[in-house]
Amino acid sequence: MLSLQSFDEYIKLEKLRSTMKKKQSSILSRIAIAQTKKPYIILTLLLLLTVLFSIPAQDVRTVASLEQMMPRDTAEIASFNTLRDEGLGRDAIAVIIRTNKDSYVERETIFGEDTKKYVERLDKELQTQTSITKTQHYLNHEGMVNHDQTETLYIAYTDAAADNERMKQLATYLREITEEGVPAGTTILLTGTPIIQQTLGELIQEDQRKTRIASTIFVLLITALLFGFTSSLIPIITVTLSVTWLYGTMGLLDLPISTLAGGVAAMVIGIGIDFAIHLMNKFKFERKEGLSIPDAIEHAVMHTGSALSITALTTGAAFLSFLVGVMPEMGRFGILMALGIFYSLIITLTALPALLVIEEQLIKRWAKKARFGIEKEYKIK
Fold first, then answer.
1. What is the DSSP string of 174-213?
2. Domain ranges of the chain
3. Cα angle for residues 299, 241, 221 (degrees, 5° grid)
4. For the segment 202-226, what is each residue's pLDDT rounded down to a tens digit?
5. How confident is the model at residue 16 (pLDDT cuts 50, 70, 90)?
6. Angle (nearest 5°) at CA 375 between 372 and 376
C-alpha cells in the first residue's frame, strides 16, 4: 500500500506532467493555427532564412588530414608535431618522371637535355616555396634512377601536412607546376602525402554530393509511390531546407566535412523524412475523416508534434554523446547530426504544415478551373 506521503508525491508528479503537457499542447496549437492563417508569410520567412544559410554553406571546408581527425594531445601526435616544429619531421612528395611508351616520341632512357632542364626548372621553382624544406633528385643525389634508366624521381620534403589549408595550396601548386614543360616522350606522375590528402578531400566532397542526391531521389520515389507525386514533393522540400540550414551552420561555425561527416546529409535526409511523413500522414488521415484543413493541421501538429519532439530530443542526445569520446572527428559528427535532427524537427513543425495548407488551396483552385459542361456541372476527378 502507498503511504500518504508517497501518494502526495504521486499527485504532485501527475499535476506537473499535466501542466507540462498543456504547455506543450498550447505551443504546438499556436504553431498550427499560425500556419493555417498565414501559410504564405511563414513559408516566405523560412525561404529567406534558407537563402541566408545558403551563403555560408558555400564556405564549408573539407578536412582530409589524419592529424585533424585525431586528438592533438595524444603522445604520439604531440611528439611528431614537436619534431616537425624542430625541422625533423616531414612528409615526402614524389614527382615520377618516366618514359612514355605510347608517345609518338620514342625514348630508350629517361635522360636527355630536356629532362635535365625540366628538373632544374622544377627545383628552382620549389626552392622558393616556404613549405618545401628539402629537395632530392638525380642531379644532386645518386640512386634516383631505376635499373633500366626509364624512370627517375624528384622528391620534395614538406612540413605542410599538419595544416589543411597549406597542404591544399601546396598540392594545387604542385599539380600546376609539374604539368608545365613536360619533356616529350615522358609521363609525369605526382604522389605523396599532400597529394593523397587533397585527392581524399576531393573524393569526400564528391561522395557527399552523390549520397545527398541519391538519398533525395530514393526518398522522392518511395514517397511518390505512397502519397502521389505532388504530395511527395512536400517532405522533400522540408529535408532539403534542413540540409541547407545544416551546411550553412557548418560554414558559420567552421565545422568541416571529413570522411565520417561526409554522409551526414544523407543521414539527416533519412531521419528528417520520417518526421515529415509522420506528420503528413496524420494530416491526410484527418482530412479523410472529414476534418477541415485548419482542424486537420491542428490535430496533426498537436498529436504528432509531441512524439516527434521527444524522438528528436532522444536521438539528438544520443549523437551528442559522441562528444564524450577523445576523437574530435567523432565529436564533430555528433554535433552535426544533432543539429541536422533539430533543424529537421523545426522545419517539419513549421514549413510542412504551411506547405500542406498551400497544397490543399492550390488543389481546390485547380478543381474549380477544371470543371466543364454547359453549367460547369462536371469536374475532373
1. HHHHHTTTPPTTEEEEEEEHHHHHHHHHHHHHHHHHHHHH
2. 26-58+228-366, 71-194
3. 80
4. 888 888 888 888 888 988 888 888 8
5. very low
6. 25
Own/partner contacts of 172-177, CB < 8 Å, gap of 24 or more, are: 172/198, 173/129, 174/93, 174/95, 177/122, 177/125, 177/126
26-58+228-366 matches 71-194 in fold:
no
Helix/strand number for the chain, H first, E second: 10, 6
User: Lowest mean pLDDT: which of 121-125, 243-247, 250-254, 370-374?
Assistant: 370-374
CB 298 within 8 A of CB 29: yes
**Distance from the first to the final alpha carbon of the chain:** 63
pTM for this predicted structure: 0.72
Using the predicted structure, report yes or no on whether residue 102 has a pLDDT greater than 90: no
Q: How many CB atoms lie within 10 A of CB 355?
A: 23
Percent of the chain predicted with pLDDT > 90: 14
Distance CA 143, CA 246 (A): 52
Please state which CATH number belongs to domain 26-58+228-366.
Answer: 1.20.1640.10
Q: Do 332 and 261 form a contact (C-beta atoms < 8 A)?
A: yes
CATH 1.10.1660 corresponds to the domain 71-194:
no
